[in-house]
Specification:
The protein is mainly β. The chain is 0% helix and 52% strand. The chain has no helices and ten strands.
C-alpha cells in the first residue's frame, strides 16, 4: 500500500518562502512520479507542479518562476520550494503519486495515491 505524507506548511507573510516536503512509501523497488496540487477555500483543486523519476518538471503558469520542485536525496522524497509567496497562494497543498517505475524489482502503481495535505497561509 502506498502512503503519501506532506509536511512543511505554515503561515508566512507575503513575500516570504516555505518549503514543502512529500514522502512516498510503498513498494520497495518503485521510483515515483509525483505532482503537487492545491485547493483554496471555496475553489477547486488545481495543479501546481510535477516531477517524474527522471527529474523532468512541469509548473502551473501561476507559480512558474516562484516555485521549484525537486527530488530529495532520500529515495521517493520530494520538495516544493515556494518563494515570493502572496495571499493567492493560501491553500491546502496536496502531494499525489502519478506513476511509478521499477528500479529493479517488483513495483506496482494500481492507482494514484494522495496525501492528507499541508496548510499554507499567506498574510498580506
Amino acid at each position: 500500500q502506498v502512503q503519501v505524507v506532506e509536511s512543511g506548511g505554515g503561515s508566512v507573510q507575503a513575500g516570504g518562502s516555505l518549503r514543502l516536503a512529500c514522502a512516498v512509501s510503498g513498494y520497495r523497488y518503485c521510483l515515483y512520479d509525483i505532482s503537487w496540487y492545491r485547493q483554496a477555500p471555496g475553489k477547486e483543486r488545481e495543479f501546481v507542479s510535477s516531477i517524474d523519476s527522471s527529474g523532468r518538471t512541469n509548473y502551473a503558469d501561476s507559480v512558474k518562476g516562484r516555485f521549484t520542485i525537486s527530488q530529495g536525496s532520500a529515495k521517493n522524497t520530494f520538495y516544493l520550494q515556494m518563494d515570493s509567496l502572496n495571499p493567492e497562494d493560501t491553500a491546502m497543498y496536496y502531494c499525489k503519486t502519478d506513476d511509478a517505475r521499477s528500479a529493479g524489482g517488483v513495483c506496482y502503481h494500481p492507482r494514484d495515491a494522495w496525501g492528507k495535505g499541508t496548510l499554507v497561509t499567506i498574510s498580506s
